[in-house]
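Quick question, first post here. What does this chain look like in 3D?
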Amino acid sequence: MTVIEAVVFDWGGTLTEWHDVDFHAESLALAQAVVGVDHPVEVSQERLHRAGGVVWGRSRDEQRSATVADLFTEAGLEHDPDLLHAYYAFWEPHTQTDPDVAPLLRGLRERGIKVGVLSNTIWPRAEHERIFARDGVLDLIDGAVYSSEVSWTKPAPEVFRAALDAVGASDPARCVYVGDRLFEDVWGPQQLGMRAIHVPHSNVPDVQRGHTEGEPDAVVHRLADVLEVVDGWR
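> Answer (accepted):
Ran it through. Tokens below.
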């Protein structure tokens, strides 16, 4: 019988429900933070949209992390971080925590299993923690790694190792990763020796798909079912 030490979760599309996002509208919201230019906002919008493709392409192909500031740098634009409120307001409807999350995380912790989060993100930790606190689950998370704070993105093995370190787990074979993408969230953790549960919630755009699709150790269609899968591995 395997003792499961930790279950680590992806964030967007896993702990939150998948939403299709208008990335041109996202770029327009970002453009509200641009300073020191005399061109129309639509010019900044288009440059930021192109920069977003470059930044996320590096994440997919080279596992290189980035921040919101890096996005503006790639676009050749200066910005004022205090003016990013329109950008985060744009994302607010897409950040609602799935109702199954709180009881699932409580159930794992009641079993003595550590709970972690590992997200490919350009956002700072404070923004993610604000969302988790808003939805009443921040105190149910034992450790989290956000790629904006480290050098790598999923599926690099280093970032999964960092997530295990964050929750105090030592043996990848006794840890589970849960996510919605077959490249980053299934193939990635399996390269380190973790088990992977796929939650096929998301309509992942072709441009965001990686070079490999892993074969999950289990598939669930509701987060609530993760507990039953983990119990079967204990």
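The chain has two domains: 6-17+96-232, 23-92.
The radius of gyration is 18 Å.
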